[in-house]
Amino acid sequence: MALLDLLGRRWCLRILWELRDEPLTSRELRTACDEASPTVLQARLTELREAGFVELGEGGGYGLTPFGRELRETFMPLHRFAERWRSKSGARV
Amino acid sequence: MALLDLLGRRWCLRILWELRDEPLTSRELRTACDEASPTVLQARLTELREAGFVELGEGGGYGLTPFGRELRETFMPLHRFAERWRSKSGARV
DNA sequence: TCCGTTGCTACAATTATTGTAGCATCACGC
DNA sequence: GCGTGATGCTACAATAATTGTAGCAACGGA
After folding, report:
1. Which of A57, B15, B29, B37 is 20 to 30 A distant from B69 in Cα terms?
2. What is the pTM of this model?
3. Residue A88, CA distances (Å) to A9, A85, B47 in order
């Protein structure tokens, strides 16, 4: 599962998640990601672009490729699970 | 999505993935995870146990909790996606 | 031209991860 | 009881990743 290796990098899942609805500029993405340092974000974005999940639109701003949208679909159940996890397991933070 | 923060730590997804079928001992898990250092694995296992996804069975060996199995179910589509990703996008490594 | 934005990078400080070695504990065979 | 091999887990230094801050060049209005 090389995919797990890519996704298991810091901010990687989060980036895909934040781009779920609409493209974001690098600055917006940074804001959405708790002000994570641009160094990592840029690194992750490059990796995600090379993987074909994210692209930089002509008008600027990062968005999901069709392939990235497929991946996002895979994650939606995770979202619903996260909700239950938070309430059920008295999750901290 | 605090869940993404937890899952987005190195080896975290991989660990959950490797435990998908049956419980593994810490040594087996290490082997399954490309000989990752026991330091990280132990750290991740502790986090995953605190989160309620993984537990240490009485007879030894780490396994998924019922809650962890739910999470695993969420991941199965990811597996199928990974297959297509590898072939489609000429993914490296 | 000046201002604000874009994507992106440099660099030092801090964390996390790696790799190797080893601990205490328990079960088994002898 | 005594070794043997397994278990979960930890120490520690070396290395790699991440953070935080500052700033770059390029483009688009006003």
Report:
1. B37
2. 0.87
3. 27, 5, 17
